[in-house]
Amino acid sequence: MFNIMAVYLVSGLWHGANWTFIIWGGIFGVLYILEFLGDKLLKGGGLDKAFYKSKWIHPFRVAVIFMAVLVSWVFFRADNTGDAWHIITHMFTGWDRLPYLGSSAFETVLGFALVLLLYAIQILQYRGVASIYMGPTMVPRSMRWAGYALLLVMIAMFGVSSEQFIYFQF
Questions:
Q1: Which residues are catalytic?
Q2: Contact 23, 75 (CB under 8 A)
């Protein structure tokens, strides 16, 4: 366990010479160790299949991991630990401004609808109803090449920015 935690802390240091990156690595180390210990505990009690396959537990586990990763990203992107802590403590405030997330009510509703659509797709994939993978034979060649061309145009139009590379400050 010590070795695993050391690897995650060093990987945080590798991303940048700041405490925020070390904390980021530490969060992932703790998550990994908790998963490892939880697996041993559940398998020892024979609960692993019931726990992992439960239709009620799976969405809860996905949400908890998603929130933990979001918190870790705050540390990854913050300039210092004070800024990260300020962001985390204020992450769930400001609900009075919820209607103004987009520049219009339509954009706000559209954003929530798209998030719900993505969640529904994830549920369908988990249940085996839908697959994210589409093989080459499922899409006609002309459609694939049109998609490739569209991607190239979008990269050319939106992929150019003057921002520095994320590791430039290291």
A1: 15
A2: yes
Two structure tokens written together for 140:
């006609």
Q: How far apart are CA 20 and CA 104, in angstroms?
A: 35
Residue 116 amino acid letter? L
Q: Cβ of 131: how many Cβ atoms within 10 Å?
A: 10
Distance, CA of 100 to CA of 94 (rounded, Å): 11
8 A C-beta contact, residue 141 and residue 135: no
8 Å CB contact between 107 and 99: no
DSSP assignment letter at 137: G
The H or E element that residue 153 is part of is helix 141-158
Count of Cβ atoms closer than 10 Å to residue 74 Cβ: 19
Predicted model pTM: 0.58
Measured distance CA(99)–CA(105) in Å, rounded? 7
pLDDT digits (tens, 9 = 90+) for 127-148: 777 666 655 566 677 888 898 8
Q: Which amino acid is at 122?
A: Q
Other CB atoms within a 10 A radius of the CB of residue 4 amount to 14
